[in-house]
Amino acid sequence: MTGNHKDKSITRRRAIAVTGGTVAAGGLAVAGYQAAFADSGTTTTDAAATATTTASESTTCMTLMSSVTEGPYYLDNALVRKDITEGKSGVPLTLRLTVVDATDGCTPVKGAAVEIWHCDAWGYYSGYTTANPGGSAPAESEDGSTANDKTYLRGYQIANANGVVKFETIFPGWYTPRTCHIHLKVHTGGQKEDGTYEGGKVNYTGQLFFADDIAEEVFTLEPYSKHSGSYTTLDNDMVYDGGGASSGLLTLKAVHKKDPSKGYKGFLTIGVDPDAENTGAGSGGGGGEGGTPPGDAPTGTPPSGAPSASASS
Q1: First-to-final CA distance of the chain
Q2: Which of 24-38, 98-112, 198-212, 258-272 has the lowest mean pLDDT?
Q3: Which of 274, 269, 270, 273 is nearest to 31 (CA)?
Q4: Considering only CA atoms, which of 110, 104, 209 is closest in space to residue 165?
Q5: Closest Cα to residue 102, out of 278, 272, 246, 268?
Q6: In terms of pTM, does the model score above 0.85?
Q7: In this model, does residue 10 exceed pLDDT 80?
Q8: Nearest to 80 by CA among 156, 172, 174
Q9: Structure confidence at residue 55 (pLDDT)
Q10: Where residue 304 falls among pLDDT bands split at 50, 70, 90?
């Protein structure tokens, strides 16, 4: 990476993955959509786009989806911030996620901490910039942004009274052998202190996914188009199981229908059990990263210290 770098890496206890759940689209998802976009001038027409599902479908809220492993690129930092781009270029993505208690009538989980992390437009993760994303991509050091390669595209947000969190990020790229995705953890019981989140437990570890047609269109744009190779579709992904919203598939709304470069808004409602906890971090079977990690990607438990800012492919 080039440019000025300020080390924002923060060490705390590693969060552990546990069983939680994602809510399928339905009556609950409609309410989550309206609440999530209330601060961005959403029109009645926008909300009505998801109103065709029946109220009975909201019963899927009570079915918890098994957690998946956190993958090989997790870093144990705890930065609470809405904008996680750190100067990374790409198609803008606004994520609005609603956390509900699936064991208590899907009531909002106020104070839940949602943590996300994902790769940049070329398939690189902060802290692991020497890991080859597969295909043909520029070396990460050639990216002229001023992003800190220890923390870009990583962060926490704390749910409001409606259980809603909002992130400003970019549309993720891809790396072999995975489809386009965002990693996610939901924490409860901790607290925000000096811009970081401390304590508590992890109730859910999962991934968010993107429709193939939208992802493939985005990847024709700059800077994504500089990464060429064989993209893995949802049907061929080793983690996504085809369950739609209940498996983490985001609902996406284009900011400008005729110009995908203007960005997208994405939403999903996530059902968790706030009392659940499990030590499944890094475990295999049933939906981790799957297959062989790209290039020299690290496996198992990430190192306690992130690679230096000068690391490059």
Answers
A1: 10
A2: 24-38
A3: 269
A4: 110
A5: 272
A6: no
A7: no
A8: 156
A9: 33
A10: very low
Instruction: Tell me the two tokens of residue 21.
Output: 């759940």
Q: Which residue has the tokens 């992003």?
A: 147
Tens-place pLDDT, residues 95-152: 999 999 988 888 999 999 999 999 999 999 998 888 899 999 998 866 555 544 579 9
8 phi, psi to nearest 5 deg: -105, 10
Residues written for the chain: 313
Q: What are the DSSP calls for the chain, one per residue? A: --S---------PPP-------PPSSHHHHHHHHHHTGGGT--HHHHHTTTTS-GGGGGGGGSPPPP----TT-----BB-SB--TT--SSEEEEEEEEEETTTTTEE-TTPEEEEE---TTSPPTT-TTS--SSB---GGG------TTTTTEEEEE--TTSEEEEEEE-----TTPPSEEEEEEEEEEEEETTEEEEEEEEEEEEEE--HHHHHHHTTSTTGGGSBS-PPPGGG-SS--S-GGGGTBPEEEESSTT-GGG-EEEEEEEEE-TT-----TT--SSSSS-SPPSTT---SSPPSSPPPTT---
Q: Which long-range contacts (CB under 8 A, 24 or more apart) does 158-162 make?
A: 158/80, 158/111, 158/112, 158/113, 158/192, 158/197, 159/98, 159/99, 159/108, 159/109, 159/110, 159/111, 159/112, 159/113, 159/114, 160/110, 161/108, 161/110, 162/35, 162/98, 162/108, 162/110
Question: Tell me: the pLDDT tens digits for 223-268?
Answer: 999 999 999 999 999 999 998 888 899 999 999 989 999 999 999 9
